[in-house]
Amino acid sequence: MFTRRFRRTVTLLSASALSFGIATSGVLISNADASPSTPGVSAKTITIGAAVPLSGIAVSYANVSASANAVFKYIDKKGGINGRTIKYLRLDDCYGLAAYGLGCTAGASTTTLSVNQVLVAQDHVFATVGSLGTAAEESVLSYLKANKVPQLFVASGSIGWDQPAKYPNLFGYQPSYVMEGKIFARYIKTNDAALSVGYIGQNDDFGADGYIGLTDGGVKIATADNLSYNAADAITGSTSDITADVSQLQTDKVQVVVLDSVPGFTNGILETAHALGYAPKWIISSVGADPTSVSTTIPLEDGATTLDYFPASNSNANPWIPWLRKVLEADPADFPGFSASSVISGNELYGAGYAVAFAETLKAEGRTVTRAGFVKTLESTTLSTPAITPLRYTGGNHQGLLGGAIAVILANGTSAPQYAVPTKTIFTTTNAANSPLSVVAKPVVQQIPKWLK
Thinking of the domain 45-176+317-380, which architecture would CATH place it in? Predict the structure, then answer.
């Protein structure tokens, strides 16, 4: 039986918030004008950084930080915040896998820790913002704490980011995998209570926490149908786990399958099931469901259920969608070829979301910026972001968003789907085993602050 954990047992792969896309990074330089009293803060700039995969097998996550960078560039063109521009340094940690090669352009000795040491000791960043991956970011918790560097908006759904007593400068961003599992359980019990349920999860904290959420929510899964794939298969290229798991569920005639999988494995599972003639109802984690990233050559994801905490990216009725399109079009360096007809991915919404949260907190902090002051401001400021649920941190909640809406992956003509469309009911909860699931009448449409438009 899984237990509620704060540490991973497998560190070869870590699930991030969302899905996959591509970005590039320019040459980065040291921050020569850092204030000696508050690192990263000078009279005219504030320097922040992130350790993110810009090469290797997880390069597709790079457009999360690229979208955040586009937001910061947009703000800088408008004059910055309280007289300062934002310098965002994104360094390639290759998802913590540089030693394996796998297309990494970072040197083989590069680790997430070594990248953070550059950001802290050489570039003197004020904070890390939007660094990605559970295993990767767990590896630098102690280092950043010892150096009093805020570790903000970690891109992962681990419950480990919500430890304010032990790590007061550590903040997550997205709902946890436990929360997501609870919401899926509510959906299954409401809509598919009479159907048998199976599960395939990544064999680390991603899968473990998602399964905990399902069982917390009252879903019962037969032991034979509680399955996993090896996270290391992304490195070895093995598909044996996927084939065996899908075949098992088909043999057992499981009717609803919940997936806690990253997009590449979601793709492999859907294609394997299709080849076997197996067509259950699919419920897919937000991490692995973004349709622009699940690159099946045929529309196998049509009709699948997922969780979303952003509006549909083609919903121009939500003011954040046309705003983000404008931001991305204005940044050809990070988004070459992006145009009015380009599809906005879940990755880009995610990166823009935490960039806006950082910017709003910085705005509220005022002209005098300190690390301790920023953390207190973050814990006490109601933030207006692209998310469809409120983002409110407190001294007792550093997880971030506390829920979202069930969403449906919609068909897109004759090609593969491009959009996940949330329903109009929001569910929120916490990581605690006995915490209730609250229902909010409809998604929140948060307005763009005038200074940000």
Answer: 3-Layer(aba) Sandwich (3.40)
